[in-house]
Design goal:
The protein is mainly alpha-helical. The chain contains 5 helices and 2 strands; from the N terminus they run H-E-E-H-H-H-H. The protein starts with 10 loop residues before the first helix and ends with a helix.
Length: about 120
């Protein structure tokens, strides 16, 4: 299973994106550029793709990046993304994230939406 696959966005994905962008101050974590809250050029990058249920809504798996150029760069430079991610969260957390990404988790869209709505609400 590729960690860079394309997977359809669900309602919980949209809410989680709002939560994580707000939590991290609407700033690209690679280049530091600030964006407006509703910017179309700032999004959530999943190191392990959204196809992995166990890491789909994991804050350590997800990074806030400018869609262009930062996210686009990491999509075409996967080794650099891995190096950056490993340095960012540390070797121990990176290994734990790898294990988590390869651990089965049942899909439960209704529960995930409730959980991410609560996360977003906690920031208000």
């Amino acid at each position: 299973m590729s960690r860079f696959g394309t997977t359809k966005r669900r309602p919980a994905d949209i809410t989680y994106s709002q939560y994580l962008r707000k939590l991290r101050g609407y700033r690209c974590e690679k280049c530091g550029a600030r964006h407006e809250p509703n910017s179309k050029n700032l999004g959530v990058s999943h190191y392990w793709g959204r196809v992995n249920e166990s890491t789909r809504y994991d804050d350590q798996n997800c990074d806030i990046l400018c869609n262009i150029p930062c996210h686009q760069y990491f999509e075409s430079h996967k080794t650099e993304y891995e190096t950056w991610k490993r340095e960012r969260i540390g070797v121990k957390a990176f290994k734990a994230l790898d294990v988590k990404a390869h651990t089965y988790k049942k899909r439960d869209d209704a529960m995930r939406l409730i959980e991410v709505k609560e996360l977003l609400k906690s920031l208000e």
